[in-house]
Design a protein that fits this description.
Elements (H helix, E strand, L loop, with lengths): L1 H16 L11 E3 L2 E6 L5 E8 L9 E8 L2 H7 L7 E3 L5 E5 H7 L2 H8 L9 E5 L3 H6 L8 H8 L14 H8 L7 E8 L2 E11 L2 E6 L1 H10 L5 E2 L2 E7 L2 E19 L6 E17 L6 H28 L7 H8 L6 H7 L4 E10 L4 E3 L1
Parallel strand pairs: 1-5, 2-6, 6-7, 7-8, 14-15, 14-16
Antiparallel strand pairs: 2-3, 3-4, 8-9, 9-10, 11-13, 12-13, 13-14
């Protein structure tokens, strides 16, 4: 009993003598808006943070802080030691990860660490960068003096980049941990002193698979998700020794996807119709002739059908499901659905693709 009382008194004394750790005031905090993640020459991770400067007396509108560690978690914790403020991620808008890092380590340690943080939003945007992510974050871009809103704008969906996956933490975690779909992240690079999205990067769970260019990404976008409009599909054609090329700039799609669940011969039927509002044409083929417009519709439908079919086979051979076909089969399957079951079904699937197009009379723009 005396020993118990002594321990209680000792705890009270130690508690009373210790210094309490106070929560930082708002003026003592640095709010990270963007993070860049890279590999370094020591075999570890380098994290760079962009923190806006609120003081009117500062010549800079943003400060950059970098820290390195063996893993992302350790490097992130070290960031505050390089700043006079306590850095936190409550205002984090995007995380850009270098392609070299994604290839070497995947993205699990980055996404799960931040996703599990109670202060970070699950709507943080993701991008894979060509070259060092730190260079992208610290870059100077023509007509864009403020890097923080510029990166946020580039990673926002627009009519001109609907082929992008526009992944957030929430969507990536959902697809990476599901047994019905695989995730993708936009591919960001600097071109002509501007930032632009030039494709997507496929992942299997959290592992890097490969990059999809803009043309391949556009084909995937036609049948991926529920986007109503598609844009920028290039079709080169040679007819009777006459060459012409068509670029679909704006179109409205109707997509019907039907799956037939069969243990020996599963089937996916895709019925796609495009109503084309704007198409750019160049070549020697007289497309102004009404008969040739019908011919152009057939050519577009055939070219798009081949492109969609080839892309479906390519993704199937790579064992990557960007289109959510696994979810369609899960709806049709009785009993428990597992990743193993989908991996058995996916390689057996046969595809049937039917495409029709309607080229509106005022859609053609001749160059």
């Amino acid at each position: 009993m005396k020993q118990f009382i002594f321990l209680i008194c000792l705890l009270i004394i130690q508690t009373g003598c210790s210094e309490s750790v106070k929560t930082p005031y708002i003026e003592d905090k640095g709010l990270i808006t963007h993070l860049a993640v890279d590999t370094n020459n020591k075999g570890g991770v380098t994290v760079t943070a962009a923190v806006p400067v609120a003081s009117q007396y500062s010549k800079k509108n943003v400060n950059f802080y970098s820290a390195s560690g063996k893993r992302f978690r350790g490097a992130l914790i070290k960031l505050s030691s390089f700043s006079d403020k306590y850095l936190e991620v409550s205002q984090l808008q995007s995380v850009i990860i270098s392609e070299a890092f994604a290839k070497k380590y995947g993205v699990q340690q980055v996404i799960q660490k931040l996703y599990n943080s109670p202060k970070a939003s699950d709507n943080i945007k993701l991008a894979i960068t060509k070259g060092p992510a730190q260079k992208i974050l610290k870059g100077k871009y023509e007509g864009m003096p403020l890097i923080i809103p510029y990166i946020a704008t580039v990673l926002t969906p627009k009519q001109s980049n609907l082929f992008s996956s526009f992944a957030t933490f929430r969507s990536f975690i959902l697809y990476a941990t599901s047994a019905t779909r695989d995730p993708a992240i936009p591919y960001l690079e600097e071109q002509n002193n501007h930032l632009t999205i030039t494709g997507n990067v496929m992942f299997k769970h959290f592992k890097y698979i490969r990059k999809l260019g803009p043309e391949e990404s556009s084909v995937v976008a036609v049948i991926f998700g529920k986007k109503k409009f598609v844009n920028v599909l290039d079709i080169a054609v040679k007819e009777n020794n006459k060459k012409y090329s068509l670029t679909i700039n704006d179109a409205q799609k109707k997509l019907r996807l039907k799956v037939i669940e069969d243990s020996t011969a599963p089937l996916v039927n895709i019925d796609l119709h495009l109503k084309i509002f704007a198409v750019t044409y160049e070549g020697t083929f007289n497309i102004e002739n009404p008969k040739n417009i019908k011919k152009a519709e057939q050519v577009i439908a055939k070219a798009l059908k081949n492109a969609v079919y080839e892309e479906l086979l390519t993704l199937q051979n790579e064992n990557v499901d960007l289109l959510g076909l696994g979810e369609e089969f899960r709806k049709k399957t009785r009993g428990k659905w597992t990743q193993k079951k989908w991996e058995e079904i996916y390689p057996k699937i046969k595809f049937k693709v039917h495409v029709t197009t309607k080229l509106l009379d005022n859609a053609v723009q001749i160059q």
